[in-house]
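Input/output pair, single chain:
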Amino acid sequence: MIADATGRIQGAIPGGTMLNRQPGAATGYVRDQLQRAIAYLKLPPHTAPLRPVRLPSLPPSKTPLAVPAGVRLFIRLPEHPQPAYRVPIVQPIALTSAEWATLAHPSAPRTVAAELLRVWLEQVFPVGMKEMVGANIHNDRVGGSLTLRPAGSDTKYRYAILSGTVALTLAGRTQVEHGGTLKAVLAYPKTGSGIVALKGILNGTYPETDSFQTRVTQHPYVVVLESL
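Output:
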C-alpha cells in the first residue's frame, strides 16, 4: 500500500507475476514501483552521500616475529541465481606467529596438511547457506594436502607458492561436504624469518539440497584471501 504523510491510502503496488523465474527481477520490480510511488506522491528526491567502504580488519600484529596480524576472507557464490548470495561476505581472522610458522619459507618443496591451517579454513564456506544447517557454523572437518614450494625472489622479497586441494565438512544439523583447490603466493623478507604477505584464491563447490530433499545443485563458490 502507498500512504501519504497523513496516513491516508493513496494507492498500492501491484504484485509482480512470474518474477521468481528471473534472477534479480523481484528486486528491480520493487525498486521501479517505489520510484513510481515517489513521483505519484510528489515527494522531493532523496539523495544520501555515499558511505565510504571500510573493510573489517585487525589491529597490527604484536608478536616478536614479523608476520601479518591475520588473513581476510572474501567469500561469495558468483553464479547463484539469487543476487544476495553473490554479494561478498568479508571476514578477518587473527593468526598467531605459531600459526604463520606453518607457512615459513621452504628451502625445498614440502607438504602442508590442510589441518594445520584449520584456524582459517574452518571459516571457509558460503555464508549465505548457513540458515540451512543450523547455528554455530564452521567446518568441523578439515582435510586435504597442500604443497609449499619456493618460487624465486626479487630485489625485495623471496616468494613461495602454496597449492593443493582442501576437503571440508560443515558442522550443524546437516553434515555438508564441500571444498576445492587453493592457490596462494606468499612473500617473505629477503633474509631472516617472518612473512610479509599472502594473497590467494580458493575455488570450491558447495552442494545445495532443495526443500524436498530430491535435488542437489552444485554451487561454485570463490574465496579470496589476503593477509592483514
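The radius of gyration is 23 Å. Residues 107 and 150 are 7 Å apart (CA to CA).
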